[in-house]
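User: Can you recover a sequence for this backbone? Please restate the input before giving your answer.

Assistant: Of course. Working from this structure:
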């Protein structure tokens, strides 16, 4: 009976360790994706400022105002796009982590419970 319980405990620890490794990998990939999106966002903001500074300011009135308005509008739209993409990525990552926990933990809990009962019989 003691040997049986040790095996069940060992299996439980191994599965929990595997779950944590999978979740850590998902978190790492998600962090890298979000970081890359933030870098692209930062570059985009620099490009917007560059257009305003190097293009719009050299245009005569009323083209300078129109250029500023178009640049500001496009930059805000892209900023919203980046925010939406970042939120989607974070949501997908959290969903994957939750699914990993649920889809592995529930069967593992059933398995461990059954084997613990078998160990006592």
């Amino acid at each position: 009976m003691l040997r049986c319980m040790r095996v069940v405990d060992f299996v439980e620890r191994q599965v929990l360790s595997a779950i944590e490794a999978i979740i850590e990998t998902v978190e790492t990939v998600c962090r890298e994706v979000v970081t890359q999106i933030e870098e692209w966002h930062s570059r985009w903001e620099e490009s917007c400022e560059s257009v305003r500074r190097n293009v719009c300011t050299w245009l005569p009135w009323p083209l300078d105002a129109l250029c500023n308005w178009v640049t500001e509008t496009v930059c805000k739209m892209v900023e919203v796009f980046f925010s939406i993409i970042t939120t989607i990525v974070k949501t997908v990552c959290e969903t994957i982590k939750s699914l990993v926990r649920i889809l592995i933990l529930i069967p593992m809990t059933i398995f461990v419970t059954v084997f613990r009962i078998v160990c006592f019989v």
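That completes the design. The first helix runs from residue 2 to 54.
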